């Protein structure tokens, strides 16, 4: 399985608008995505009000590519979030079984 960590920093002043997108669009969309085994959405905190994240566990690389495309290392960006986000960071790891 593959762990994908996706973090965004909103543009200044866009925190509330992005939070609305995050809760109403992004989280429900991800929860319906085939091949996603687990998802942990992370909302902004007082000390980092512009930062949001997802920790996702994908069944395999094929499932991740079906969602994000062949260039899965690039962010999968919904057009509704484009004007709200200043920067994105994506990292992938092999999930370690306990």
UniProtKB/TrEMBL annotation:
<feature type="domain" description="ABM">
    <location>
        <begin position="1"/>
        <end position="72"/>
    </location>
</feature>
<protein>
    <submittedName>
        <fullName>Antibiotic biosynthesis monooxygenase family protein</fullName>
        <ecNumber>1.14.-.-</ecNumber>
    </submittedName>
</protein>
<dbReference type="GO" id="GO:0004497">
    <property type="term" value="F:monooxygenase activity"/>
</dbReference>
<keyword id="KW-0560">Oxidoreductase</keyword>
<keyword id="KW-0503">Monooxygenase</keyword>
<dbReference type="InterPro" id="IPR011008">
    <property type="entry name" value="Dimeric_a/b-barrel"/>
</dbReference>
<dbReference type="Pfam" id="PF03992">
    <property type="entry name" value="ABM"/>
</dbReference>
<dbReference type="InterPro" id="IPR007138">
    <property type="entry name" value="ABM_dom"/>
</dbReference>
């Amino acid at each position: 399985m593959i762990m994908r960590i996706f973090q965004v920093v909103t543009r200044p002043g866009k925190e509330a608008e992005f939070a609305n997108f995050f809760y109403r669009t992004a989280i429900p969309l991800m929860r319906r995505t085939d091949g996603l085994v687990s998802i942990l959405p992370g909302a902004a905190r007082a000390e980092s009000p512009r930062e949001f994240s997802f920790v996702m566990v994908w069944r395999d690389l094929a499932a991740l590519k079906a969602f994000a495309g062949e260039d899965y290392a690039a962010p999968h960006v919904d057009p509704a979030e484009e004007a709200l986000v200043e920067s994105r960071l994506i990292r992938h790891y092999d999930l370690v079984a306990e």
